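Hey team,

Filing this mostly as a record. A colleague (T.K.) asked me to run one chain through the structure pipeline before their review meeting, and I want the input and output archived in the tracker in case anyone asks later how it was produced. No errors, nothing strange. Just documentation.

Input sequence:
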Amino acid sequence: MAEDLNIAKGDKKTQYESLLPQIEALLTGEPNLVANLANIAAALKEQFNWFWVGFYWIIEDELVLGPFQGPVACTRIKKGRGVCGAAWERSATIIVDDVEKFPGHIACSSLSKSEIVIPIFKDGKILGVLDVDSSELAAFDATDQVYLEKIVAMIP
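Output structure:
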């Protein structure tokens, strides 16, 4: 696939429907996890222009920063801490409309206003999370959850 995305306009569903096959094409034939995570983060950032998009991978007893797009980020997160650690602990997607109201939120940037964190599973085991932050309040909803869960399920 060419290294250019076809950026779709329209509602979220239309944008995701256009992006899914493009991400699949980026991943096809590429066995390197870092390359694949980097391209997913870049594609999501380019399509939606969110504040921050990236991955944290579970290494021993912490989430460790992986490929991302956006400003510098927290490097390590303990299980149960912040939205990422809570999603890991619960093994469930978490949508936060206002991060200031989330107990124990880790403020890597004061510009982040809302967040969605999607756990990444392989063979029933959680391996890490996809973390997406917006500079707008209540930027994420069930549509984002459905499609972002489809995207992380594509990770080989």
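Quick notes for T.K.: Residues 12-153 form a domain with the Beta-Lactamase fold (CATH 3.30.450.40). The first strand starts at residue 52 and ends at 59.
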